Amino acid sequence: MTRNEAPFAAKLRLTLSALAIAGFAACGATNVLAQSDTGGGNQPAAAVAKPGDLFDSGWRKVAVSNPQDQSQKIFLVTKEARDKNNVPVAEVTIMIEPDNKKRMLIVVPQGFLLPPGLRLQVDKNEPIPGQYITCTANTCQAEAKIDEKFIDQMKKGANLVVAVATLPDGKGRAVGMDLTGFTAVFDGEALDVAKYKEQRKAFNDMLQQRAESNKQRFQQQREQQQGSGQSN
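RESULT FIELD:
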């Protein structure tokens, strides 16, 4: 990143925090990426946390003001994945700048080795690297430079894998994000910020209700087991 890009990136991260990253962190993100069977090396590990094992928000496209020029728009194509306990595992955002340059921002929970960075891979295509750029108490954000070739892979692909190395063993961890619906969203009209927040709130509320329902079901099962033990 050049010196001129640094203030822009800092301002944009504030915008992203208001839209997405703050919501990711507020859920109490923890290191829940699944361990891979083939971690290590330059290749992303095979994703054990598969799309079918996760709840995701679906792909969404939102238009935000350019921090450097309020008359211009920046488009963000984003998706968040959480496990079945409503714990965030990864969030990816493609940023399309006014000059059509693209970069991908990735948010993952804390607990990873920072120097190796992370890897992004669509299906069996060649992976690309991402480097961590900032961390908070709960999450770390990485950035990867992407081009039209990578976007085309995502449009034609089935699964985007985010692979990281974790502390203390340094073994690979990975999560797969379903690419269903990506093309339509990427090429389609963008939501305004208010509509995006409304949809995100609905997603959060749905997962919170699901988590509460699971908690109550678990509590009932435990009470039944305790009652059965006492009767014996």
